[in-house]
Design goal:
Blueprint (H helix, E strand, L loop, with lengths): L1 H5 L13 H12 L10 E6 L2 H8 L13 E8 L9 H18 L3 E2 L2 E2 L4 H11 L5 E3 L1 E6 L21
Antiparallel strand pairs: 1-2, 2-5, 2-6, 3-6, 4-6
The structure holds flavin mononucleotide.
Length: about 160
């Protein structure tokens, strides 16, 4: 799968609108992720509003790039009614990775900005988005057409592989 190897964090975006069809494809990929017992704990907030993107950019010292993104996805998880709460982070991470990979497939670039498990960031993003009581923001994923050529690294390292035969 080329998108795995072509993916890299993209933090600078062209001032170009991303088609709604592409955003939906990205969300379709997110929801195709595996989750514990297929519990699908996710909801996705799509932010296109400039003022809200600017607020998200200020939500942590490492989220500045959200400011100039045409949109950002904020994957959130439900709080209530989950069967396997202890696996939430893994379920949400799988969805986030699918978002990053589908973005590459569509000629876009994105970056995963960590929110959970840092409580102050979770609360700040929840406040900015005015999310319902039952939702917890997990990450901020700004996305857009890359402004620069994307250079990915080859991190393959044979010494990290340990066979038991
Ligand atoms: C859980 C997680 C949290 C991250 N948080 C941030 C962040 O707050 N700000 C940011 O610019 N990048 C963030 N990143 C992106 C990493 O910095 C990036 O993936 C890493 O440096 C490797 O580079 P690459 O994605 O280009 O391969 C985060 C990545 C992960 C998986």
């Amino acid at each position: 799968m080329n998108s795995i190897f072509n993916r890299t964090s993209v933090r600078n975006y062209l001032d170009k609108v991303v088609e709604d069809e592409k955003i939906e494809k990205i969300l379709r990929a997110a929801m195709a992720a595996p989750s514990t017992g297929n519990q699908q704990p996710w909801e996705f907030i799509v932010v296109k509003n400039k003022a809200t993107l600017e607020e998200l950019a200020l939500s942590s010292p490492y989220s500045k790039c959200a400011k100039d993104a045409p949109f950002a996805i904020i994957p959130c998880h439900r709080k209530n009614g989950l069967k396997y709460e202890m696996y939430l982070d893994m379920d949400m991470s799988a969805a986030c990775e699918n978002i990053l990979l589908e973005a590459v497939e569509l000629g876009l670039g994105a970056v995963w900005i960590g929110v959970a498990p840092l409580q102050d960031r979770v609360e700040e993003v929840a406040r900015i988005l005015n999310v319902s009581e039952n939702l917890v923001p997990f990450a901020i994923i700004p996305c857009g057409y890359p402004a620069n050529e994307v250079n990915h690294q080859d991190r393959f390292d044979k010494s990290r592989i340990h066979y038991i035969e």
